[in-house]
Write a structure and sequence with these properties.
By secondary structure, the protein is an alpha/beta fold. The chain is built from 14 helices and 15 strands. β2 and β3 form a beta hairpin.
Length: about 375
């Protein structure tokens, strides 16, 4: 079996574009992969066009470790290249599973769980008041979720003034009251603060028992993260903006992260993340992939979750921001009573509906969750 070519399909949403890649073979089998871009979809598409011509077409889709198929002559290099590698690699696993009649997790060593816990993200794009957040959080729990994540810090950057701090505390207090003590509450900072500010805010919010503190400082500054971890008694999560498992080495060596959050769509795909998870396990670190793409990326992440002992939980965004585009993917994973069921379907267990995808053309997407205009542009 050989790859004859690839086709790309961009699904536009209000704040990011979802890029799907279908890999075609000379035996008629196809596979699908997905990543998501914030502002540089065209750069990804350009890379994929060149990669198809230079080294993807003619390759063996079973040879997911073949460095020529994955990297051509360029090697690892940043978000664009690693995202391009990821979508093709996912699609090749999908083809391999379909050809052999087994789910991808079976090819990666077999499953260790039947269910994967989910946490809700995207649920709080509502009026930014304690009352609105209380109501939205109650709705999340009523839908069966037993974990959710929130960034309550408004437009804070490096610092957050006294009034902003009090308001963030009021939002988290309202959310914790709505969800009760048993539901996990992840606290997100999006790497926006100085070490001192991150520590101060985390201490203010510690009474509400965050399950983790995510990206308290810019992810490229490990020394700053070490300062935060040394002064806090709560789990630290980071890693969504690291694009190569090799770049995680220093993070593991520093012992400052309790949970790593690689994005399968940016870090080279399923097998790259599987290797990363195995390395994390040797450092007693859990893995909870970043997952704010669409349903194919969720399905790929669940293949990893099914066979990974140190897998903690999977982020789920689609229920709250992408309801109108769910029809793009047939067999999309669903959350029931707070968990995903592990699929036994061959490959990734999902199919891209190309006609449905065409209904949502590429947009000039922008991420402005904390801007004054978010209320007018938020997903409906």
């Amino acid at each position: 079996m050989r790859i004859t070519g690839i086709s790309t399909h961009v699904v536009g949403t209000p704040w990011r574009n979802l890029t799907y890649v279908v890999v075609h073979t000379d035996e008629g089998l196809t596979g699908v992969g997905e990543t998501r871009m914030l502002g540089h979809t065209d750069a990804l598409l350009g890379y994929l066009r060149e990669a198809e011509a230079n080294h993807i077409a003619g390759s063996d889709p079973f040879a997911v470790e073949d460095p020529r198929m994955k990297y051509g002559d360029y090697g690892r290099a940043g978000e664009i290249v690693m995202s391009g590698i990821a979508v093709v690699e996912m699609a090749c696993w999908d083809i391999k599973g379909k050809a052999l009649g087994v789910p991808v997790w079976q090819l990666l060593g077999g499953k260790v769980t039947d269910r994967v816990k989910a946490y809700a993200n995207g649920w709080y794009t509502t009026e930014r008041t304690p009352e609105a957040y209380h109501k939205a959080a109650q709705t999340v729990v009523e839908r069966g979720y037993r974990a959710l994540k929130i960034d309550p810090f408004g437009t804070g950057h490096y610092e957050l003034d006294h009034a902003g701090t009090l308001y963030a505390v009021s939002l988290i207090e309202a959310v914790r009251d709505a969800i009760g003590p048993e539901t996990e509450l992840m606290l997100e900072m999006h790497g926006r603060f100085s070490s001192a500010t991150a520590v101060r805010l985390a201490r203010e919010l510690a009474p509400f028992q965050p399950a983790w503190l995510e990206e308290p400082v810019p992810p490229e500054n490990l020394k700053a993260l070490e300062k935060v971890a040394a002064k806090l008694d709560m789990p630290i999560a980071t890693g969504e903006r690291i694009h190569d498992r090799i770049e995680f080495r220093e993070l593991f060596e520093s012992q400052v992260a309790d949970i790593i959050q690689p994005d399968l769509g940016h870090v080279g795909g399923i097998l790259e993340t599987r290797k990363l998870a195995a390395t994390a396990e040797t450092h007693y670190v859990q893995i909870a992939p970043h997952n704010v793409g669409g349903s194919v990326l969720t399905a790929a992440s669940l293949q990893l979750a099914a066979c990974t002992h140190n897998f903690k939980i999977l982020e789920h965004f689609n229920d709250f921001a992408d309801s109108e585009i769910k029809k793009v993917v047939r067999g999309a994973p669903e959350v029931v009573d707070g968990y995903f069921e592990v699929s036994h379907a061959p490959g990734l267990g999902v199919e891209l509906d190309i006609a449905a995808a065409a209904e949502f053309p590429q947009q000039q997407a922008r991420f402005d969750l904390w801007s004054e205009g978010w209320e007018q542009r938020k997903p409906k």
